[in-house]
Design goal:
The chain has nine helices and twelve strands. The protein has 263 residues and is an alpha/beta fold. It has a single domain, classed as Metallo-beta-lactamase, Chain A, CATH 3.60.15. The strands form three sheets. Strands 4-1-2-3-5 form a five-stranded mixed sheet. It has a five-stranded mixed sheet with strand order 8-9-10-11-12, with helices on both faces. The chain has a two-stranded parallel sheet with strand order 6-7. A hairpin with a 6-residue loop joins strand 8 and strand 9.
């Protein structure tokens, strides 16, 4: 198995996003004046296993608009085709695509793919809900046109500490697991590498490893307690399995992947 980290530009996030408050001001602070972080990567991942290539998330595009709590720096030469070219691949070399969730910086790059993208059915339903469509319109972050979303159920039963899962390969070494919180249908992808480590491609389950260890909920998830419950599941899983934890926006994720550093 080979797992490679790619990036499609960067995003700077308001500190109120990265270090969320508790209580009624948690989301309101996102729209108030505040300091921003430095540039954070917008990672996606290519998993090569058993003669197939699986793309986890599709990154952002140059059309991304800034929002009150995030500033994007993505050029045309940062988009998915150019990112794949850095490892000698084209979009035609990808056999399967799976999304951790349907926020723009994880789904927008799907416009470059002429194939269905797999989405947890609960996530797709949430993205099409009245609340989500309203926020997409207000924040000027519409879902990309022309993308075929293929809903999938997490019907594979528990996997380690996770309540629901779905194998993505026949041998079960690549599996989607339920990690709700950031969005209700958020998933992560676990790859069991050749050394037996569980490489957890975490999407936005947390923004960083620091947030995971702090057991801190985020600023955008509808129910903070669900985010913390997911964090606790990840930590519980890591106590039972050597786990390399890779959030999409953590500047240290690519290095942890190269080094095989576990929790």
């Amino acid at each position: 198995m080979r797992i490679q980290a790619l990036t499609t530009g960067t995003v700077s996030c308001k500190n109120a996003f990265l270090f969320a408050a508790s209580g009624p001001m948690r989301q309101a602070r996102l729209f108030m004046p505040g300091e921003f972080s430095g540039p954070l990567p917008i990672h996606l991942w290519v998993v090569e296993h058993d003669g197939r290539r699986i793309l986890v998330d599709t990154g952002e595009t140059a059309a991304a608009r800034d929002i009150p709590f995030a500033r994007f720096r993505v050029g045309a030469d940062d988009e998915l085709p150019a990112a794949l070219a850095t490892i000698g691949l084209t979009v035609g070399d990808i056999d399967e695509v799976v999304l951790t969730h349907m926020h723009g910086d994880h789904v927008d790059g799907a416009v470059h793919l002429q194939r269905p993208v797999l989405v947890h059915d609960a996530e797709l339903a949430y993205a099409r809900s009245t609340v989500s469509r309203f926020l997409q319109r207000v924040l000027r972050q519409p879902l990309p046109d022309g993308v075929e979303y293929q809903p999938v159920k997490l019907d594979g039963g528990p996997f380690g500490a996770f309540e629901a899962s779905r194998p993505l390969t026949g041998d079960g070494r690549v599996v989607a697991v339920a990690t709700p919180g950031h969005t209700p249908g958020h998933i992560s992808v676990i790859c069991i590498d050749d050394e037996g480590r569980h490489v957890l491609l975490a999407g936005d389950a947390t923004d960083t490893l620091e947030q995971l260890h702090a057991r801190r909920h985020d600023a955008v998830g509808p129910k903070p307690a669900i985010t913390v419950a997911t964090i606790d599941r990840i930590l519980a899983h890591a106590r039972e399995h050597p786990t390399v934890y890779l959030p999409s926006h953590d500047p240290e994720s690519a290095a942890r992947l190269r080094e095989g550093s576990t929790l």
